[in-house]
Amino acid sequence: MKTVILDGYAENPGDLSWDWLGEYGEFTVYDRTPAQLIDERCRGYDTIITNKTPLTRETLEKIEGLKYVGLISTGYNVVDWEYCKSKGIPVCNIPSYSTMAVAQNVFAHILAYTNQVAAHSDSVHSGGWAASPDFSYQVAPVYELLGKTIGIIGFGKIGSTVAGIAKAFGMKVLAQSNHPKEIEGVEFTDRDTLIENSDFITIHTPLTPDTENMVNAGFLSKMKKSAMLINTSRGPVIDEYELADALKNGVIAAAGLDVMRKEPPEKDNPLCSLPNCSITPHIAWAGYETRQRLMDICKQNIKAYSKGKPINLVY
Q: Which terminus in the chain has less CB density within 10 A, N or C?
């Protein structure tokens, strides 16, 4: 095998190792690959590993002797897998490696809002507590999660994990799914009922023509004015300009995002300047333990392929 990793930095910024690939032959790792260098860097390799660098049909047709495409991600929309399937080229992804990490990020956003940790810490560091006549004070309202309702749109592994954490906080759980189940403490309902009755709404759907711009002005207008929206799925499920308008005009109280339509976002993206919109730079998946798990599954994929029995095929 002769392997090239087109964009290894996000998975391994220096705290992991790609050396295990040496067991299978020569390999080259690039931190990032700009569009104009994709074809050149793929040339001469029979095994290509990518995260977000696109492998279009046009590119794939130029790679002589390509035998395997590996993803260091769960999503595989960056690869023309249908072309690969037609040529008998395995395309293997990394499923279910970040479930707990993404669910944790959901509650990081929720708790950042309900407990206002940053606002209070900033106040203390600027001398607010030292100057206060009282042992306790608030610069922003603080709320309990007990008794609040969380609405989960999309109830796969991540959505169900979020539900378990929510129940531990004593929250009521509403869920909307194409495949409702009988789960204690979870009420499956239609989307409008969920939107209208939830204090927090968290999105866990794949990006499809049906879910793109699902969260728009109409969706937001049905939410409680006190509600918070959280998105850790895919950026384009939200119309960002309509969300920005809703946050500016008090249609909803807050939002927490780990993904955006364009990553990195444009500097003038209206959400980036709103104090009631917390944004993390697509890091829900990026904890050390999570990336190590991803690396381990990538190893398993390569090992299985080398033995002629590829696993985690996307088709």
A: C
